[in-house]
């Protein structure tokens, strides 16, 4: 998984997966926050029990301000992402696969909105570098919270994305007041909802490089990388 081009398949529809993961025992689907260079490694995947798919079938934000602050992109992707995952599940050959959906940055917001409003037939959810998944708790994703994972390094500036909704602003103000009196203050709302690594969110926290940046979770020496791999592999 260290080489993105070697670990991610191309943009596909479920009926185009024949010969490239339809019978895989473990499936990992990545929803990125922006378009990326992705090549076709199908020829390398023959005989493997794990298949990775990068789904870029939606119009992702192309800049931080104003587009990434707008939840319209996530809402508009709901039907497409739901249809893709349902189709992927329906066309799978053999035993039911361990299906993990993984989002990075705004991709986590897209996943969150879809799971909240429509649900997704997945076994695990991984939210990496999230500006908020559009929900307050992992349970709101309609999946067992013990199968919801989150990672955000201290060096990732996404943690500074401010809340703009009244509820989030009020919660942050209350949290800051508690911190001022020495009563903690881990709960924090970002621009698209509660921080996914906040204890109140209820996700399983993955290890990170504390100095890592927003896109460094996939670096070869990142502790997040093997942790994601174990989830996808069902270990």
TrEMBL record:
**Protein name from the UniProt record:** DUF1023 domain-containing protein
DUF1023 domain sequence ranges: 45-164
